[in-house]
Specification:
It is a single chain. The chain is of the alpha/beta class and about 270 residues long. About 45% of the residues lie in helices and about 15% in strands. The protein has an eight-stranded parallel barrel, surrounded by seven helices. Strand 3, helix 3 and strand 4 form a beta-alpha-beta unit. Helix 1 packs parallel to helix 2, helix 3 runs parallel beside helix 4 and helix 4 crosses helix 5. The longest helix has 22 residues.
Length: about 270
């Protein structure tokens, strides 16, 4: 398995400094938070996109994915949601990233079946657009669809190779799902896995990997036992928790922790 971290953990940090952290601490890739307050977002010009891609290539670091905020099950017309996803797909294509992250984002006031149907319809269209660009669009286990069992209600009806899943281990745990259950649900669709750690279900302030309660060792064991060889991406939510310890000083120990889990599960 290859290791990456998300720029959610280093809000606003210029790309050269992000790459310096990745190379200094032995990470193979970076997940880019695609938001206007970040250096990389869909509003970049063609020249800026080319420069960013060149910086990653020169550093020998991969762009794992573009983490967007489009919500597949959001109420309203399809067009604005699909336009947002298409912008993310074009950005990923231009940066050489294989994945785009989207959220479910269903309205709790709507019937579940209606939200699932809306999300599946939009994801099916987005998957065709993704295929044309050589990118894969991944539905994250998050908010209204936080478990693998939830996500598969959308992914199953789509049945498209360019539509997949992003397993966020915190949300599946909060949803009461065991790692073996999540993997069983998502295995045919799994793009990559976001790892993190927290103190409890009530306190989700990000912690150093291994310092909290999330079943990271069990997740890695399940993946390794299945022969899965994709990406583990550390999503440290510093942007939402300003008082959390700075990520840069945790990156080295975090990689060592993940390496240890991988070695133990081999």
């Amino acid at each position: 398995m290859k290791l990456a971290f998300s720029t959610l953990g280093v809000p606003g940090l210029p790309i050269p400094e992000v790459l310096a952290l990745a190379t200094a601490h032995g990470y193979h890739g970076v997940e880019l938070r695609a938001h206007p307050e970040e250096p990389v977002h869909p509003g970049l010009s063609p020249a800026e996109r080319a420069e960013t891609a060149a910086q990653f290539e020169a550093a020998g670091v991969e762009v794992l994915g573009v983490a967007g905020y489009a919500r597949l099950a959001a109420p309203g017309d399809d067009a604005p949601v699909l336009d947002e996803i298409r912008g993310l797909l074009r950005l990923a294509h231009d940066l050489g990233a294989p994945f785009v992250r989207v959220f479910p984002g269903a309205d709790a006031g709507r019937p579940r079946e209606e939200s699932d149907s809306t999300a599946a319809r939009r994801l099916g269209v987005a998957a065709e657009d993704a295929a044309a660009l050589g990118v894969r669009v991944l539905l994250e286990t998050h908010d209204s669809h936080r478990t693998g069992a939830d996500a598969i209600r959308v992914l199953g009806p789509v049945g498209h190779g360019q539509a997949g899943a992003l397993w966020d281990v915190m949300h599946t745990w909060l949803g009461g799902e065991q790692p073996s259950q999540t993997y069983a649900a998502l295995a045919p669709h799994l793009g990559y896995v976001q790892v993190k750690d927290i103190a409890s279900a009530e306190d989700t302030t990000p912690l150093a990997l291994g310092a909290g309660v999330l079943p990271l060792a069990e997740c890695v064991e399940v993946l390794a036992r299945a022969g899965w060889d994709g990406w583990l991406c550390w999503e440290y939510e510093k942007r939402w928790y300003e008082a959390a310890e700075p990520l840069p000083r945790l990156l080295g120990p975090g990689r060592e922790y993940l390496d240890r889990l991988l070695n133990e599960s081999a």
